[in-house]
Amino acid sequence: MFARFLTAAALILATSAQAQERWMTIPPAEKMPAAVSSGTSTINGIDMYHATYGDDDGTPILMIHGGLAHGDIWSAQVADLMKDYKVIVADTRGHGRSTNDGSDYSYTLLAADYLALLDHLDVEKVHLVGWSDGANIGYSISQTNPERLASHFAHAGNITLDGVDPNAETNEVFGGYVGTMAADYAAMSPTPDGFEGFVNDVVTMWGTSKPGGVDALKSVTVPTLVVQSEYDEAILMDHSKKIATLIPSADLLILEDVSHFAPFQAPDQYTAAIRSFIEQ
Known about the structure:
alpha/beta
């Protein structure tokens, strides 16, 4: 599977010059703004990188990135949101600057890491913005610890495996994303040569059933915005619509003219959607 991802990454380089539609390209993330605090702490048995931006006394925003990525992908959103909110970002276990202790990746474990991080930061409750795997981590926390979430902006998550587009692993745009994350991993990770094994381990997690499944969504009480991109390469539209129907407190937002990588492709519109939801 990793070889197929790399093949797709090569194809995106060959076709990017012809790509005219916004959803067919992934612009590079901007440099992160200056943090109020940042560093690595021992969290749940790992060294976890985290950073805080802004100094508002209200409920903070916790932003959880997608699989293979790192907290710095949120640079455009953080630069805007930090003007009015305290914003927390982190690198998920094994991603970016954070380590793994040899544990198998699971959404239950990753959710436990983020809950432990909030405890470490002495943060009681957050607005959670989750993209892709970040949304799946958010769904897990919504089920197990709803008291920790003021809301959940859940973009491009999936609850069952049939919600994943089977063409994702050979999609050119998705392959380009993997290639970019490979370069970032080499520059950031404490194990810079370990990207191939890391990808294989994360892909294994992607192929497992999500905690609770469909039935667990029916009892979720966290105000949730299920967000789906019009041209998502990985998550099927009908699956997001189903999630929005099953969660009693959920609404559905469809982002037009973007793909799975909307935070990169339309950062201003994406941030506006986050603000609009939280400010309700």
